[in-house]
From TrEMBL:
Keyword Transmembrane: yes
Bilayer-spanning residue ranges: 16-32
Name recorded for this polypeptide: Uncharacterized protein
Organism annotation: Desulfonema limicola
This protein's UniProt keywords: Membrane, Transmembrane, Transmembrane helix
Length: 42
């Protein structure tokens, strides 16, 4: 849940595809268990 909030915050702040992509990859690397949830969110 915290990751989802963080993702939303960073995405709204950056509003750039590159920043969102970097954040997305970071989630995949550091939180592989939640990666499936990230796919469902986006």
């Amino acid at each position: 849940m915290l990751i989802k909030i963080l993702l939303t915050y960073i995405y709204k702040k950056s509003k750039t595809i590159f920043a969102f992509f970097v954040n997305y990859v970071s989630v995949f690397i550091f939180y592989p268990d939640n990666f499936s949830q990230m796919i469902l969110i986006n």
